[in-house]
């Protein structure tokens, strides 16, 4: 079924809650492991119908945040979603109370019981009203950000549409693009500050009600981190600071020589080649045809997958006014259909996001066609991002379909960009730990903390008198900080595995692809460490775990200078 033909009906909230209550009673009373497994599957199927409506409403809303009809549906889920989440918590509590609960682990893998325990530990009816408010605030941020239009080059542009101007070969135009972006955030400074302040205080209150010291503790439970915690993530950030940042200084010196820019400023950071960054060659239709050819040649299963996606209109990737910024993939459960949302802007990032979200979508497509219960079809987000970020590298043999003679430039740019990302992702994560462990910081104090982290993780950045960024507010354009706190480190944890796939594919692409498929087909039945180890990859939580990888990536970058 094509996306435009998928029917939508607002769920009957009372029927959903009544059904959940009935299932909880039956799950608690199940008299055998076999009966419990059967009821667990029934519960997953029941809630899949609710999630289908929820996902459809959210997709339509993000496609045009100005559409009042879909905004009203999003508001309905913002208001009523917490009650359903609480009902799911009661289901989890019922399952865990059953003496046959271990049968689920034997049937579905090591993550099912920890996931249920985390659900019980992260939700309570006492925080429902606070979660309603939290949803309302994040939707307000989406509207504020998604509605941004700025003046540049005689045009009205969205924030994503500024990206090509940030990569202009004219330094004045690059700076003007950053200033245009800054003008919107500075004009709405009070609104962005107020929304975040209210979100921090809201989430902190939720944490205290649920018995946690602060929201950083609660977030690890809500993010369903299995097998590691704040200590391990702090060790990972330390590894990036010590093993990656020094190498990046040398790499960026090479880039400066390559571009002929002796003293690059922050607004020069997007330019990687003296004659301009690589950009996709072709129209939307030509790029999509390239994607179809690429995935047909990669493997039979990816050929089947891309046909399904394109034939059923499961892409919306062009940027336009009113469309929410960013990109995502969502599975529509009842239709077993992944949907890819993006904001193409004519830069190489269009291909990044195509292959990235296709990695998510392929995993979702495969898992939906197995016997794995719906809530275990996707692993934790740090693991889900392995699917997407590794796909960006594993499609390298076909990147010429998008970049033609600029393919070598793209490969170098992409490898550098992935490496440069690691310190930034750690900045975002450490910033959030600071904020939520000190929830009374003023907006100015938060910005000051961000600037300190710039010196720690990206000491090469010089902002001069650039508005917005110069005062330390650049974090406000990172939507994850507002919408899904503590998510961003997941990209870093996944990038480390993806870079290992990158190196592995250089030696034996077919072997790397088979290892990727092995990891992907496990879906959510294994933890981050278990998935990485299943593919023969190293988990990055121990001292020195990044040393060899960082050097291998640096060596490849040095050897492929253009």
Describe the structure.
This protein is mainly α. The chain is 64% helix and 4% strand. A hairpin with a 4-residue loop joins strand 4 (328-332) and strand 5. It is globular, with a radius of gyration of 23 Å.
Question: What's the layout of helices and strands?
Answer:
Blueprint: H1 13-29, H2 33-63, H3 68-97, H4 102-108, H5 112-122, H6 128-146, E1 150-152, E2 155-157, H7 163-166, H8 171-187, H9 189-209, H10 215-222, H11 230-259, H12 284-298, H13 300-311, E3 315-318, E4 328-332, E5 337-344, H14 349-367, H15 381-394, H16 400-403, H17 407-437, H18 443-457, H19 479-483, H20 489-507, H21 509-521, H22 528-534, H23 547-559
Parallel strand pairs: 3-5
Antiparallel strand pairs: 1-2, 4-5
Helix pairs in contact: 1-2, 1-3, 2-3, 2-4, 3-5, 3-6, 5-10, 6-9, 9-10, 11-17, 11-23, 12-13, 14-15, 15-20, 17-18, 17-20, 20-21
